[in-house]
Amino acid sequence: MSHSDAFKKIQQDLADREKGYRAKALKMFPHVCGSCAREFEGKNLKELTVHHKDHNHDNNPPDGSNWELLCVYCHDNEHEKHKMKGYGGPVDDSFKSEGFSAFDGLDSFFPVAGKDENKS
Ligand SMILES: [Zn+2]
Ligand SMILES: [Zn+2]
């Protein structure tokens, strides 16, 4: 296996795992953003993402105690806050920040035909 193949496999594993805990969290918790209390259903559900309270994506206890459902906006904010901690910098307009691709639900901003992994 070449280096890049191994890398691709790791990426794929990560993506699979992320889908796994998202599905679990969505079954476990009401579909409401834990921060702004927006409710989600149907297509909008893609904007609801799973946040790890301790910011450790490897910490996925089966009881969901490390998960929090946040909409993509609040999720972004949460991570900005975390990044800013200890730096004394202002929390600025983080909505525009990039580097969001790790979050499931980014493609919710665009209509995706025939893709509905949230069906239960
Ligand atoms: Zn929110
Ligand atoms: Zn998060």
UniProtKB/TrEMBL annotation:
It holds the Pfam family HNH. The keyword Transmembrane does not apply. One of its GO terms (cellular component) is cytosol. The keyword Cytoplasm does not apply. SMART domains: HNHc. CDD domains: HNHc. Keywords: Hydrolase, Nuclease. One of its GO terms (molecular function) is nucleic acid binding. Residues 20-76 form the HNH nuclease domain. InterPro entries: HNH, HNH_nuc. Signal peptide: none annotated. Belongs to the HNH nuclease family. NCBIfam families: PRK11295.1. This is Putative HNH nuclease YajD.
